[in-house]
Amino acid sequence: xxxxxxxxxxxxxxxxxxxxxxxxxxxxxxxxxxxxxxxxxxxxxxxxxxxxxxxxxxxxxxxxxxxxxxxxxxxxxxxxxxxxxxxxxxxxxxxxxxxxxxxxxxxxxxxxxxxxxxxxxxxxxxxxxxxxxxxxxxxxxxxxxxxxxxxxxxxxxxxxxxxxxxxxxxxxxxxxxxxxxxxxxxxxxxxxxxxxxxxxxxxxxxxxxxxxxxxxxxxxxxxxxxxxxxxxxxxxxxxxxxxxxxxxxxxxxxxxxxxxxxxxxxxxxxxxxxxxxxxxxxxxxxxxxxxxxxxxxxxxxxxxxxxxxxxxxxxxxxxxxxxxxxxxxxxxxxxxxxxxxxxxxxxxxxxxxxxxxxxxxxxxxxxxxxxxxxxxxxxxxxxxxxxxxxxxxxxxxxxxxxxxxxxxxxxxxxxxxxxxxxxxxxxxxxxxxxxxxxxxxxxxxxxxxxxxxxxxxxxxxxxxxxxxxxxxxxxxxxxxxxxxxxxxxxxxxx
Length: 494
Ligand code: NAD
Hints:
Helix content is 41%, strand content 21%. It is of the alpha/beta class. The mean pLDDT is 96.
């Protein structure tokens, strides 16, 4: 939770775990943002000129410090946004995998490489390289305050950009901590600056002289970010909300699928962009699957203590959204086979499993961001695919099927699919992560994630004069006749 401090330009962070103030941070103004962006431009040349290898060494050193001090970072994450410390450690582990990958692969992915020329351009040697944009503005959410921003920060830095980062107002301490650790291994210049604040600070970053915005947050805020960036034609990376589905085929491993649905739906108190919110199950195994899910989910307790498997809901306003979704699901004929409206206890929400919820309920169509699942019976896998794809979101999806997993996966319109597991595509460092539709566009992670923070520069070098000089007023009628023949020869057969 956040509140305004008596000093108008400061805000407090109130821990959802203890209810106490755990930090007070400046609310960055437009001037603060502009100053940071100006400094970032001043040092961008230095950081870019260091080259891939020297940058990789610094980023590896950053990774080493984060790893050695990981318990401290996990504690800070727990106290600021409420997830259990062990889950915060898992988040750090995943984030560092991607940081390592970006440092190791930037030269290979972005460095200059030769490409083939063509018959008409045979006298040219051609190459392409991917250059840093300059200064990247990153705006982050609170639900994965390490993994999510590092997806942009690591890749933007590895590509040679400097960064101004506006962390969520719920987790500013985590953002500041990450930047402080980088400054220990890059003491010369502030290549990563953090400006804390709320939406107004984020909005100022969009209007500043950054060369790109890497945004992760809700779809509604994403639209505001794009509107602001349109004024200056600033490109944007949009990592927005989701309503991910999990599909269970008649021959799927029910134990594994139930385990994935429960973890995917309930972990982090359901506050996961890639969280499972909808489950579609073949009618032949529906009852057996629901039994398994309920048996598992019954053992999970939300709490603020050290032993709780899931923490509190971080944003107080989200409680109303969760209540509205459960209420709508039940009002439209759904049943809570576990939890329900009574599962909401202050800022804690106990696991809630809903069945028979119609597809037009907001519990199925909108992002709930709570520890709830709708589990729906489907006729067959065509039915499951159609319902899964009906969402306006398209981030990730899981499918459990022994024989047809790949086939079902190829029919899904989301940025990623995992067959017989949950969310593993986000853990494989060489894979891109991102969505389609209302989940956004652009990619973090992998080669696409590195290219996201660059622009390609194409280059040709003439090796010898062309025997067919085309781009000159000295072109003869003979050459024009030859071009006509060539056009027919090269393309007319198709
Ligand atoms: P949010 O949209 O409320 O806030 C995100 C960030 O935007 C915050 O830093 C906030 O201060 C800033 N912001 C708010 N108004 C702004 C404005 N007008 N201009 C610029 N910045 C502004 O989202 P949240 O509650 O922090 O995060 C949860 C959302 O993020 C969920 O929808 C979740 O699905 C999504 N998310 C997506 C991914 C992904 O990879 N696609 C990852 C994590 C979270």
